[in-house]
From TrEMBL, chain B:
Sequence similarity: Belongs to the binding-protein-dependent transport system permease family. CysTW subfamily.
Gene Ontology CC: plasma membrane
MF term (GO), any: molybdate ion transmembrane transporter activity
Secretion signal span: none
The protein's name: Molybdenum transport system permease
PROSITE patterns: ABC_TM1
Chain ranges of the ABC transmembrane type-1 domain: 6-210
Domain of life: Bacteria
Chain segments annotated as transmembrane: 6-28, 40-63, 83-103, 137-156, 191-213
Topology of this chain in the membrane: Multi-pass membrane protein
Length: 374, 221
């Protein structure tokens, strides 16, 4: 029987591959499970699919209990769509037969029609008779997606769906997945190690590392407000610094920090204890090179003197590393190429950058384990 | 040329293979995919005929199934079956001796099926039997073909265990290998030579055919 509705996952495993995770994914929502390789992402996905059995926990889809004490539905009973990392196509069957292989629950007369419809829906018309080895990576991925979706599954599970594709195909499939997601109205769980992919496609993000869930929430929220340093690093944030807490400025509602010889202002809701050492982080969009020269520096910006160490042109953007004056820290920034040219930024140049105070975020000390939505 | 012996050998090989292949599929699949206590012991037991001389296996079969043995008497009394010095006994002996030749290639070809493909078949809603017949067996086909050819050729040339278990009764247990041996004993080298050449040509051509077929299948995977 097909279950319709939200997916609730609570997994606890201490032995074997340790894994602790608890999250929900609403129908029509795409949840990205992000983390480094070997962190337990694929195991988590396999547990949701019923291919691995967790030690304890509960997995529920809508009203149907998939896993709990004494209950463990098989993958067949869960009626889900699963796209493995290398697509798992049946090499002896044509594209159409691959899609039809998942349609045994339909009357025979409808299977062919349904398979062709879905191949067309994933833009793969004209190739139904091809065998998997005659298809390109992107085409294989579409067949696997069509096979998973033609079943009208209760949940769609995608394991690193874009990792083996070239950039152009990947970009095209991003758009297709985003389009499909809004039409499907089922929970979609995507495992990826690519944070940018998750930021692009996901409605919700679950960060996982070494089997522990570090943080979950809206992707932008997690990016701007990482809970701790481990999360910040996984989100690709490189500007993580130490500072000492100074008294809170009630009048301006600013938290001041002593950063080397400089004072840094940040807008934070959480009051810090004066004199305490903290770690803080700033995302790339909080670092401005042109604000000072264009005279747009306001109280929301902190001014920092830096010397540019290196510039690396990467397409339309430039990766810049600069040493912060009076303190042994380096600032990493990604600046559009046109701006670098306009401001004549070059290695050895001493300049000033502005840090947006509302994007400065103070990190928690201890690494948090399982967390709820922030 | 002893056509009767040749026909008996072909019959023995065909029947043995018909029993061996399904039996090997049943044994090889859990060995390839599942973990269970005593797996290593079972694998070692299956491999025993590879290292044990066929005459030793033949001896044990003769002793344990002969008309004086407990099993032999049981079979005779309740089923009116006599295995020793009968064709059915040769089939049993051939099956036992050839189990490793059947199980090994089939197990390896099951193992070669990517985990993702098997996962996908389960997530496509296929039950165990459907997974086996629609996905696994078509993909394990090169291994099954290898097992089939290996076992057929091996049974066709089986000597030690056949001699011990069946002796040399014309039309019942005298296979082509026994006939070659008998001819050499009787100094009829021309007949022995003809039959040996036939077996040699058969062995080479079946192996060449298997290699070619496997290669062709690999290309299409």
């Amino acid at each position: 029987m097909k279950a319709r509705g939200d997916l609730h996952v609570h997994i606890s495993q201490l032995n074997g591959i340790p894994l602790q995770a608890e999250f929900s994914c609403r129908a029509g929502e795409l949840l990205a499970v992000v983390g480094p390789s070997g962190g337990g992402k694929t195991t988590l996905l396999r547990m949701i699919a019923g291919l691995n059995q967790p030690q304890s926990g509960e997995i529920r889809c809508g009203e149907q209990l998939w896993f709990a004490d004494g209950i463990n539905l098989s993958p067949q009973q869960r009626h889900l769509g699963y796209v493995p990392q290398h697509y798992g196509l049946f090499p002896n069957l044509s594209a159409q037969a691959n899609v039809m292989a998942g349609l045994d629950h339909l009357p025979k007369s409808q299977r062919r029609q349904r398979a062709l419809q879905w191949l067309e829906r994933v833009n793969l018309q004209g190739l139904p008779e091809r065998l998997p080895h005659q298809l390109s990576g992107g085409q294989k991925q579409r067949v696997a997606l069509a096979r998973a979706l033609a079943r009208e599954p209760s949940v769609l599970l995608l394991d690193e769906p874009f990792s083996a594709l070239d950039r152009e195909t990947r970009e095209r499939l991003y758009i297709e997945l985003a389009r499909l997601k809004s039409q499907l109205q089922i929970p979609v769980i995507m495992v990826t190690h690519d944070i940018n992919e998750a930021l692009l496609l996901a409605d919700k993000l679950v960060l996982i590392s070494q089997g522990q869930m570090l943080q979950q929430g809206e992707p932008r929220q997690v990016l701007l407000k990482p809970r701790n340093e481990a999360v910040a690093r996984q989100m690709g944030l490189r500007n993580i610094f130490d500072a000492k807490v100074l008294p809170y400025d009630e009048q301006q509602q600013l938290q001041w920090l002593q950063f080397g010889e400089q004072k840094i202002a940040c807008n934070t809701d959480a009051r810090q204890r004066c004199g305490e050492h903290v770690r803080w982080v700033i995302p790339n969009q909080g670092i401005r090179f042109n604000a000072i020269s264009s005279g747009r520096l306001s109280r929301s910006y902190n001014k920092l003197s830096v010397t540019i160490d290196s510039l690396l042109v990467m397409g339309e953007s430039v990766r810049l590393v600069a040493s912060i004056a009076s303190i042994a820290y380096q600032l990493h920034a990604e600046v559009p190429l046109h701006l670098v040219q306009k401001l004549a930024l070059a290695a050895g140049l001493q300049t000033e950058v502005a840090l947006k105070s509302d994007l400065i975020h103070l990190l928690e000390h201890e690494p948090a384990c399982i967390s709820s939505d922030r | 040329m002893d056509w009767q012996s040749l026909w008996l050998s072909i019959k023995l090989a065909a029947i043995s293979v018909l029993i061996l292949i399904p039996l090997a599929v049943i044994i090889a699949r859990p060995l390839a995919y599942e973990r269970f206590p005593g797996k290593s012991w079972l694998e070692a037991l299956i491999m025993v005929p590879l290292v044990l001389p066929p005459t030793v296996i033949g001896y044990y079969l003769l002793v344990s199934l002969g008309s004086d043995s407990f099993i032999g008497q049981l079979l005779q009394q309740y089923f009116d079956v006599q295995l020793v010095f009968h064709f059915s006994g040769l089939v049993l002996a051939s099956v036992l001796v050839n189990i490793p030749f059947a199980v090994q290639p089939i197990q390896r070809s099951f193992e070669a099926i990517p985990q993702e493909v098997r996962d996908a078949s389960a997530c496509c809603g296929m039950g165990r039997l459907k997974q086996l017949f629609r996905v696994e067996l078509p993909l394990a086909w090169p291994g099954i073909l290898t097992a089939l050819v290996l076992c057929f050729s091996h049974v066709l040339g089986e000597f030690g265990v056949v001699l011990m278990m069946g002796g040399s009764i014309a039309g019942e247990t005298k296979t082509i290998s026994i006939a070659i041996y008998d001819n050499v004993q009787a100094f009829d080298f021309s007949a022995a030579g003809n039959m040996s050449l036939l077996l040699l040509l058969f062995a080479i051509s079946t192996l060449a055919l298997t290699t070619a077929l496997s290669r062709r299948m690999e290309r299409h995977r």
